[in-house]
């Protein structure tokens, strides 16, 4: 069995690592850490890896709009999705209490998920970093006393840190949605029942309503609708839709019907819907 190379944002014991291990369970894989989401997309595009894993949406912090822009700009395709329950914990070197922690580091999305905890502990300064697990690694490697990381229990185990406070996320029903990306679209669409589509419209009243009417008429469900800023045109937006269906032919029909109504469109991916 050949080894698949999987690019992830972050390092070992990050949430992206957990998703990669679960999604590709039963296959030989090699994790390729990347410090940015753009680097993940570039690694897939440049054939440095077989697949990439990137977070796209969190139940508490919302959509990662920049990642939708990357999926639009790079020649990659979504071939799958995964949902991971997220438990955030405050980690530090052994023997420290909450009062000893003066600085906490983590990924911006993780910090956003823990704003209540940070508000309740004003003596702790929050500092953004590239990754949850990498923040934990740096504490161990540099023996940083008084510094904490918000990360997973796996990161605590890997880097031999103590959990000072468990479950510091704002809400316990916390999950993150991840996309699995590839250079090529999903080959076998027989099991596919979901797609992510991004498009721009003419600037006329009612144009979006026409598109939504088409999907309603062919019984396609919209599980997400999101406006995405167009960076090259600051006052304009693209529309992102997640579409779900029971019969793939209805999706094909709907795409045919909306194509004359839009300015431009990219199907970011067609894939099988994951369970939360």
TrEMBL record:
Catalytically driven reaction(s): prephenate + H(+) = 3-phenylpyruvate + CO2 + H2O
Pathways per UniProt: Amino-acid biosynthesis; L-phenylalanine biosynthesis; phenylpyruvate from prephenate: step 1/1
Example of a GO MF term: prephenate dehydratase activity
Matching Pfam families: PDT
Domain ACT: 196-272
UniProt keyword annotations, A-Z: Amino-acid biosynthesis, Aromatic amino acid biosynthesis, Lyase, Phenylalanine biosynthesis
Domain of life: Bacteria
TM regions (residue ranges): none
GO biological process: L-phenylalanine biosynthetic process
Record-linked Gene3D superfamilies: 3.30.70.260, Periplasmic binding protein-like II
EC number: 4.2.1.51
InterPro entries: ACT-like_dom_sf (IPR045865), ACT_dom (IPR002912), Preph_deHydtase (IPR001086), Preph_deHydtase_CS (IPR018528)
PROSITE patterns: ACT, PREPHENATE_DEHYDR_1, PREPHENATE_DEHYDR_3
Domain called Prephenate dehydratase: residue spans: 5-183
One annotated Gene Ontology cellular component of this protein: cytoplasm
Name this polypeptide is given: prephenate dehydratase
């Amino acid at each position: 069995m050949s080894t698949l190379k999987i690019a992830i944002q972050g390092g070992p014991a990050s949430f992206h690592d957990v998703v990669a291990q679960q999604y590709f369970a039963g296959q030989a894989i090699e994790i390729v850490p990347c410090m940015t989401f753009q680097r993940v997309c570039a690694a897939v595009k440049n054939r440095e890896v077989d697949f990439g894993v990137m977070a796209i949406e969190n139940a508490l912090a919302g959509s990662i709009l920049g990642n939708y822009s990357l999926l639009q700009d790079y020649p990659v395709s979504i071939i799958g999705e995964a949902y991971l329950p997220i438990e955030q914990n405050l980690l530090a070197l052994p023997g420290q209490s909450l009062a000893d922690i003066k600085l906490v580091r983590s990924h911006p999305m993780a910090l956003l998920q823990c704003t209540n905890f940070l508000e309740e502990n004003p003596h702790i300064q929050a500092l953004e970093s590239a990754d949850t697990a990498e923040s934990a690694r740096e504490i161990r490697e540099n023996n940083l006393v008084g510094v904490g990381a918000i990360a997973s229990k796996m990161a605590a185990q890997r880097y031999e840190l103590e959990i000072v406070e468990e479950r510091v996320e704002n809400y316990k029903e916390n999950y993150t949605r991840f996309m699995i990306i590839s250079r090529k679209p999903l080959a076998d669409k027989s099991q596919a029942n979901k797609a992510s589509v991004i498009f721009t419209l003419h600037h006329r009243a009612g144009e979006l309503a026409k598109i939504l009417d088409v999907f309603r008429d062919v019984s396609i469900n919209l599980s997400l609708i999101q406006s995405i800023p167009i960076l090259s045109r600051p006052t304009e937006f693209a529309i992102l839709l997640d579409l779900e269906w029971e019969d793939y032919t209805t999706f094909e029909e709907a795409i045919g019907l909306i194509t004359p109504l839009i300015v431009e469109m990219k199907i970011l991916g067609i894939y099988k819907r994951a369970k939360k």
